[in-house]
């Protein structure tokens, strides 16, 4: 009968009960929205890192990453390629020559990282072709052309056809330089990289640095993201003389972000839940105060404190159960809609998003494995917020409550 | 056989004991035997409700002892007292005080459920009680669908459902019209006679006083008179 009383009690003040249910639904919706948005942003960022920046795995000379000098090269390329081509998980291989140097124009100088690429593989490997906003890659039959970032172009006042000088150390530590013309301008979702990285032909850069078929970096893309760890281990065994790193090691800030995003989203959830808790606490408190005489009466008749406590708790559980389905439906359907159509955050500032390496259109995705923890947080919040009113109810003295 | 149901020994209830003490009840000795139909009368503020609350275990005396059917309720722990009230005392409050979300039947059944009575026992008792109070056809109505008099009759049925040692009624007719009050009194009188249930009322209502077979008058928290009235309806 306590169960039946609790159920009927919540419909005594429909408006008040609906306020709690709507609050719970909105709290849950907000939780799903926050988690989905963060998940979508992180997936987008990770995809950008893998698909447009590093690939899944990179191979370098063991000292290259630490000292970043042109002399630390990967030799015996053909032999290495032969070895790794036997790994079925690998679906794309991209070779790069890297050189840190100085870009000079009559307007000033800028430190840049020059990447020597083979457009046949690079355009697909890093989606460079898609990022080109002005121009059409390298022009055929022309030498010493460069593809530069929009941010760098703006900074150095360069446009298509503009000339600049690139200067860097070759493998023997001699200073070498060459003049280039801007062939295309690209724009990625990572503004700091756009300001730093320029692409040139690997053949010309190889000549300038005095290389003999070696490269600095071999990038690999795998069939599945989940294969990264296993393939990294396999490659380490296969190429023990080289440094094999997954995207998580190359871009630790992304890995860190992916790990901490849960913490951030739960912190935001807790803030939302605190607001929700106060709403429930206030409404349940009002409900108890309104019924103090009735509670006093049932206590006078011989209802023990546990049953009164249970009554209040059951009412909160029913209210929560009333709000939860709406919250889930609202949250998941909104997530589904924006997952399909994208959520355009350019209003927040395109530069702001790209400065942190995020795309402006996010496709929120709700991690279903977080539904149970999220529901638990909402239900626990609702129950905890009803504790205070419930304690107040059980501590009412029947004699005082009956006087009201 | 000792048939004393209520036995108060020199009880006092003092408000503001540390500032300006006010004796709501002072040195009251009262004994009620099984089957009594007693009215507690007196002017407003004389301590009628306070005395009922003390006997009903809703309040504790500052001095003295209250024995209910041989149990000293002043020495019971709060949880034991709740259980004691459930199984020994029936309450009828002035303003009906039914649980609004339950039907008349459920209101009466509620207390039996708290006692852990089985379904068969509950059904038999509730059917019998609602017949006795004349509301067998309105058992499934909510309190809001009943008149004030009918609600108070349901309150009596609820008080009786637990098969208590006695029933305490605090001004049960105060909010009723003459006809409803008369019907309620007839029912309580009948139950008292037929089932030998002890009733103790606090009242201002002359109609109740006229029906009582014992009238205890309180003045300033003390019993000023205690009169047994010969019931001419009893066989000699």
What's the quick description here?
The complex is a heterodimer of chains A (404) and B (236). Chain A is α+β, with helices and mostly antiparallel strands and 404 residues long. Chain A has helices at 2-10, 14-54, 64-67, 77-84, 119-125, 128-131, 150-156, 191-196, 202-209, 228-238, 247-250, 252-290, 292-301, 305-341, 350-355, 371-394, 398-403, and strands spanning 57-60, 90-105, 108-117, 132-134, 145-149, 163-169, 175-186, 197-201, 217-222, 243-246, 343-344, 361-362.
* Residue fraction in strands of chain B: 25-35%
Spatial strand arrangement across the major sheet of chain B: 6-7-8-3-9-10
State Rg of chain A: 31 Å
Structural class computed from helices and strand pairing of chain A: alpha+beta
The dominant shape of chain A is: elongated
Q: Biggest protein-protein interface?
A: A-B, 21 and 26 residues
Task: Indicate the percent of residues in helices of chain A.
Answer: 55-70%
Oligomer: heterodimer
Please give the number of β-strands of chain A.
12
Offer a few descriptive terms.
heterodimer; A: 404 residues; alpha+beta; 2 domains; 6-stranded mixed beta barrel; two-stranded antiparallel ribbon; 17 helices; 12 strands; 57% helix; 19% strand; elongated; B: 236 residues; alpha/beta; 6-stranded mixed β-sheet; 4-stranded antiparallel β-sheet; 7 helices; 10 strands
Written overview of the protein:
The complex is a heterodimer of chains A (404) and B (236). Chain A folds into 2 domains: 2-49 and 255-403, no CATH class; 62-241, no CATH class. Helices cover 57% and strands 19% of the residues of chain A. Chain A has helices spanning 2-10, 14-54, 64-67, 77-84, 119-125, 128-131, 150-156, 191-196, 202-209, 228-238, 247-250, 252-290, 292-301, 305-341, 350-355, 371-394, 398-403; strands spanning 57-60, 90-105, 108-117, 132-134, 145-149, 163-169, 175-186, 197-201, 217-222, 243-246, 343-344, 361-362. Chain A has a 6-stranded mixed barrel with strand order 2-3-8-5-7-6. Chain A has a two-stranded antiparallel ribbon with strand order 11-12. Chain A starts with a helix and ends with a helix. Chain B contains 7 helices and 10 strands. Chain B has a 6-stranded mixed β-sheet, with helices on both faces. Chain B has a 4-stranded antiparallel β-sheet with strand order 2-1-4-5, with helices on one face. In chain B, α4 packs across α5 (148-161) and α5 (148-161) packs parallel to α6 (178-195). The longest helix of chain B is centred in the last third of the chain and has 18 residues, at 178-195. Chain B is globular, with a radius of gyration of 18 Å. Chain B starts with a strand and ends in an 8-residue tail after the last strand. The mean pLDDT of chain B is 87.
